Each structure stands twice: as C-alpha cells, then as structure tokens.
Amino acid sequence: MLLAIFLACLSIDWLFGLLVTVFIIGGLYEFFTMVENKGINIYKYFGIAIGAIIPLSIVLRFELTRSWELLFIGLALLFLILMQFRRRENSGVIVAISTTIFGILYVSWCLSFFIKIRYLSGGVGLVFTVILITKLGDIGAYFIGSRFGKNPLIPRISPKKSIEGAIGGLVFSVLGALASKPLFPVFSLSHTGWANSVYLQLIFLGLFLGILGQLGDLSESLMKRDCQVKDAGQILPGMGGVLDFIDSLLFTAPAFYFFMSIILK
User: Do the domain assignments include residue 5?
Assistant: First the structure.
C-alpha cells in the first residue's frame, strides 16, 4: 500500500513534495515527542510549523535568497528566543532552543532534499536510486547481521547491530548502486584516470551512501537510547515510527543531492 502511494506521488513532482512534507511533519512530531518525554520543554508545534514551511517553500519554488532554508531557520531561532521571554523560569532555555533548531535541521532540512532531487534532470530515477541504495543497505545489514552477526558494532548504542551486518549492508548498497546505472541521465565525474569508469563511480557512490545510511540509523538509535524509547512511534506497523523509517535517508539525501548537482553541471 505504501509503495503504491509512493509510486503514484513520485510521478507528479508537487504531489511528491507534499508526500515528503507529510513524512517531515510525522518525523518532527515523533522527534519532539521523544524530547518532551525526556523532560525538555519545547515549542513542539512551532517547530513542526517551521519544519513544514521548508519543504513547502521548495514545492512552491520560493527563492527569496540563495540559502532561504537557512533564512527560515534563522527566523525560527529569533522567534524561539522571543518566546522564551514569556517563560516564568530561566532554566532549560538553551537546551529547549537548541533542541528545537536541531530537530528542524535534522528532520526537515535533511529530508527536504528529496524534493530537490526530484526536481533535478531525471529526478524520478534519481529518487529511486538514493532510496534503493539506502534501503538495500538497511535490508542487507538486517539479514546478514541476523544470520552471521557475532561481533557487536557499537553495543552501547544498538546491541543488535554487528560488524558483519554493517559489512553486509555496504555490499547490498553497492549492489543497489550498480543496479541503478540505467536510472542516471548522465554519469561522469572525470574524463581521466580511474574515475572515468562508470562502475567504479557507482561502487564509490554505493559505499559512500551506504556508510552515511548506517550512520543515520545509528544516530537515531543513539537519540532513542538517550530518550529511553524502543521506537520513535507506532504509526507504521512492523516498522515503528516515521522517524524509524526515514532515519537512514536523512544523511544520504543531502549528500546524494550535492553529488548529483556536481555531476549534472
């Protein structure tokens, strides 16, 4: 069902932008809820509103400045400071402001790069590519780790993740990158040396995004452990929350966008 909705939305750029916005809102809600459970007083709905403006502004082609996303975040910081003046006590102000801004950057700014990828030349195929590489890495890490995992990766963060699983995830990410070759409209980093080989470039891309995807997964696991929760939410049956689903994509989407922006010049 989710796959059918995704495919239907991907074919229409503005509809895909709205779908990404929905995921951003869900991810922000779960993130801020986890933070509240830790006892930090934040302006949850203000943070969600600012977080939703960023992807919507991309969909509407709003370009007031070259880095207008950071303009929104700067304005959010200003309003957050002003809102702190209404509080009856001063304790926790820095933590509340910092956590809110971090949530906006971590979830909204990072995931909104999917909309930018969709607007690139051959954007539909490129969106498929980054998701394929990242999620195959997740699948590979899970199955290889479950079957052959013996050596813990970072047990204090995620006891079930293993070194064998991490290696398996990278192998699957590389296979995903190689399989995605027909989806690239143009693929050439250089005309000299090893980089002239498309397959070597794809292997590099698979390894690079595979590592970033695993770092994204571990980062969310670290935050959940700090907040003492098993899953960020329960909205997606069998997957946990929205944040659990998008965690590995939060680092790969911006990296892939900048990578492809250079190639497509």
Answer: no
